[in-house]
């Protein structure tokens, strides 16, 4: 068995697609507005975006994610060539980082964190230090 994609269930499809395409600069592979589905090319594993509302309909649950649930259910981890440069581009686009690029000696990595429009945590990293 192998993981083929991670699917984010989002509240605002258009805003999330724009964030991952324009801000995070991930190439959009496919997008279907009517179905509210998009797939991004990230290497072997894809990131897909699907609206919460449509997924609730697919699986027959009307309240798939309640407002009381935590924002952080998982973390998307992206390796980038230069953490500081990538974060500078993000800031130019109005992104507020959760923390500035910093060295995590125990991880042998330079890292920074931010949230997407639905509050999902994104980690940017580069190995080795």
UniProtKB/TrEMBL annotation:
Highest taxon of source: Bacteria
Residue stretches making up the VOC domain: 2-127
UniProt-listed SUPFAM superfamilies: Glyoxalase/Bleomycin resistance protein/Dihydroxybiphenyl dioxygenase (SSF54593)
InterPro entries from the UniProt entry: Glyas_Bleomycin-R_OHBP_Dase, Glyas_Fos-R_dOase_dom, MMCE/EMCE_epimerase, VOC_core
CDD domains: VOC_like
Keyword annotations: Metal-binding
A Pfam match: Glyoxalase
Protein name in the entry: VOC family protein
Protein source organism: Paenibacillus phytorum
Species classification: Bacteria, Bacillati, Bacillota, Bacilli, Bacillales
């Amino acid at each position: 068995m192998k993981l083929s994609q991670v699917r984010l269930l989002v509240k605002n499809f258009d805003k999330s697609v724009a964030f991952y395409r324009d801000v995070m600069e991930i190439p959009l592979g496919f997008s279907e507005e009517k179905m509210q589905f998009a797939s991004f090319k990230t290497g072997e594993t894809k990131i897909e975006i699907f609206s919460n509302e449509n997924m609730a309909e697919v699986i027959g649950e009307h309240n798939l994610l309640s407002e009381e649930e935590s924002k952080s259910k998982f973390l998307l981890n992206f390796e980038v060539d230069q953490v500081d440069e990538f974060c500078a581009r993000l800031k130019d686009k109005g992104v507020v980082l959760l923390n500035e690029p910093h060295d995590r000696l125990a991880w042998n990595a330079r890292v920074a964190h931010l949230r997407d429009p639905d509050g999902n945590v994104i980690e940017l990293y580069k190995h080795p230090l």
